Amino acid sequence: MKNFIELIQGCLTDVREIMPWDLEERLQENPDLLILDVREPYEFDAMHISGSLNVPRGILESACEWEYEETVPELVQARELEIVVVCRSGYRSVLAAHSMQLLGYKDVVSLQTGLRGWKDYEQPLEDAQGRPVDLDDADLYFAPRVRPDQMRPAADQGKRV
Question: What is the pLDDT of residues 49-60, one digit of tens each?
């Protein structure tokens, strides 16, 4: 059995990652580049890269195909486009990019470090109304918030569950 990080690492044998400064360069060189944000809508509404398309990870595969309620025509027609998949930290985007490659997308990569890294690189983010997000507010948003009940029980420390 694999854990979450091992699942991600297994996908990285097939998925290429780029860094935030690479994305900045790609955006300048390719105005048709599609930034696909696979976070949940509430996360996207709080802050995202301007011009990105939000398709949550949970419906991605059906959004990539015709004739489903979740179909996103812009995404279905993007199989030949350069696509950079983003999420909060760069993990969901690896899984999404892997699925997209299996579905025939030719030029799809994942943003390593996710939007956290984009923010740390001091690149702009906007909210659902298109207003700039203050990067200090983004720091608070991206701070980890693991509740005590989400932590491994003391009796299980050192065990892989």
Answer: 999 999 999 999
